[in-house]
Amino acid sequence: MGVLLAPSILxxxxxxxxxxxxxxxxxxxxxxxxxxxxxxxxxxxxAGPEILADISKRVSVPIDAHLMIENPDKYIPAFVEAGASxxxxxxxxxxxxxxxxxxxxxxxxxxxxxLNPATPISAVEEALRHADYVLLMSVNPGFSGQKFIGDSxxxxxxxxxxxxxxxxxxxxxxxxxxxxxxxVQVVKEGAQVIVVGSGIFSAEDxxxxxxxxxxxxxxxxxV
Length: 223
Known about the structure:
This protein is α/β, with parallel strands linked by helices. The chain has helices at 17-26, 49-56, 76-82, 97-106, 152-166, 180-188, 198-201, 206-222, and strands spanning 4-7, 32-37, 63-68, 86-90, 110-115, 133-137, 171-175, 193-196. Strands 1-8-7-6-5-4-3-2 form an 8-stranded parallel β-sheet. The longest helix is centred in the last third of the chain and has 17 residues, at 206-222.
């Protein structure tokens, strides 16, 4: 599997999100990233499983549900039933992480664990043995359009080293402030799933912008 591009639909325009999603897929998007926020764990509220279900009925690419919510175990079954084939939870608020990861797996989805920018990489050492992917946040979660935190490059290298030692099959995903000017660098440093929000949806031509980022990913992989 090559490096995957995952448009984050949180950055889209909900008035015309269906057409915008279609444009990203026509541009080569591999996955759709679906941010779920409850106004408690992060300071924002977004969409739930009902909207995800409407989207999943109409697309053929996987949907990656990033749960930034309290008590994620309670809601994981609903998101998988709605069509999420990837589900990630935060190490910061999931006390029984091993159990949660296997809840996701037992429901037939890929299980991911997420790290906020100030959380030590070592916090996922044990989870790496069980997770299908680790999502490294390169902004503080809650809002689209934030600036990439530069220290995330060092953290990406550290995570890659830990992953390679413990579970080389575990994918590394990165999310936050990824745009044309830094997408090649994060790919070269080992990110395998690249979440892009405003770097796609703020473009006048979303399809062309998605294709441009896919081409940048391909150029980074080819080096």
